[in-house]
Fold this protein.
Amino acid sequence: MNLLLFEQHELHADHLRLTGHRAKHIHTVLKLKTGDSVRIGIVNGKMGQGTITHMEENAIELEIRLDCAPPPLPEIELILALPRPIMLQRILKQATVMGVRRFHLIRSAKVEKSFFQTPVLEPEKIKELLLEGLTQAMDTRLPEVQVFRRFKPFVQDVVPTLTGCGLLAHPGGTAELPDVYLTSREKKRILLAVGPEGGWNDFEVDNFLTQGFSVFSMGPRILHVDTAVVALLAQLQLLRGIQ
């Protein structure tokens, strides 16, 4: 836990009382004592320091000072064909660590209907995974997560309302990510679309192309979706750093 997060309703003046796993983490992992400080942040707000003023076995009280803005977010939105629940959990956490500001979880022809019944899509579970990512990355801003159960209404009605450079990962493409990124880098925001491991079908690719997306391939090897997402976000971070 690189950053201890709390919510507005937990704050009383400049004092914070923690129980549960956060208090346990301070006791057993950080091994802090009264008078010690810990990095803290308010969800969707500033970061700063919390000084421990009182400790009990199951509760900790801190006096806090929030005086630091969170780091700037990369302008990246992830359009993701809904993967298996175990992969979805990894992606939500890891993509949050890497700075994705909004997730669009969508249906594609190769997505099983049962995936939309997973408890992972419950709002509280999604928030839990996002918060885990934020504590790792030392950020406070919760990404937005939207779920679309039908492909056509999303690509034809929602995508036109989004702004940014559309990049479509698809096996078998001739271009690579640097090629399509460098031709569109004047656009600040990125809309990265990642499909199932077998790729998008022709209808889906055609619809993305109609919306101005550029198709690229990650090479001849077929990666697990969670691996592909992390690799692509890392590549985009690198490309942005050298432009």
